[in-house]
From TrEMBL:
The gene is Dper\GL25159. Keywords: Glycoprotein, Metal-binding, Signal, Zinc. PANTHER family: CARBONIC ANHYDRASE (PTHR18952), CARBONIC ANHYDRASE 7 (PTHR18952:SF124). This is carbonic anhydrase. CDD domains: alpha_CA (cd00326).
Amino acid sequence: MWRCNVSATVAFALILAYASSGLAQDFGYGGQHGPEHWSEDYNRCSGKQQSPINIDLVNVEDKAYPTLEFFNTMVTPKVMHISNNGHTVLVRMTYEEGMEPRVRGGPLSELSPFTGYQFEQFHFHWGENDTVGSEDLIDNHAYPAELHVVLRNLEYPNFESALGKDHGLAVMAFFFQVKKEGTESYEDFTNQLAKIGRKGMSVNFTNPMPLRDYLSWDLLNYYTYVGSLTTPPCSEDVTWIDFMEPIDITEKQLNAFRQLTANDEHLNNNFRPIQPLNDRKVYKSVLEPMPFLNQSAIPFVNVENAANRRSYSPEVLLSGFGLVAALIASAFSGF
């Protein structure tokens, strides 16, 4: 009987220890699991290259970069899975093999000049009102929401192997601004959010749209710096690309995010406070000179793979700032 009681006591203690450990690994945006306590369970959250930051425009340095090249961003995914994980709205897209969106060039060319980066997921951060919400700030100004598109360096076979590695991940960040007329793709998207109102709920979007439809129209102008993931484990050596042109969203569309709940409370203010810049530099993109291009003002256009061929021909970016022509597909053997 004594042995049985001892065994039961030990087993119960182990269960309690396991449960406590699980709780310790949770994180949130307030109270004992808020950002100020993340480093207690995740050491990297106290690192020297953390995100988000305040981008002080006085100290930003101009830097010439190759053109950012986008591949397959106009391809419609086979499946678009939207979930409420208690921290954010997380979106994963499934594509036919070889048709996943990829990005190369810009600041990524210094880190992965040949392989580029592949789309993994995108998610959102937002505030309880229009004065807060974004994670990165511009001259201490916060936008009401921010989109993060997470990319994996193709030198690594999967997200887990790229996590925490030297330039294993990149994040393309897009701010939102409230307008009377929002972006059309976000009307259908935010209508889905009522279906994932509580933590743990998910839905497959029956009318998925290409990744390009969720991004800003201007993909030429951005700020960039080296930072970290803004949620635990706060892995560093992440290349950040913050696009200058915000995405338009209506108050109604934004409120669809604010109605979501996590642990019986509204899922709002899911942004991490800004972190010290330390000795890092923030750069503003300047296009490398292309004297052979005609600098006439023409509207933005995307060109996808002709006839749905499985080749990685780059989409052509045209804007009022001039023509940016990507190289032909044969120049990217294997990409």
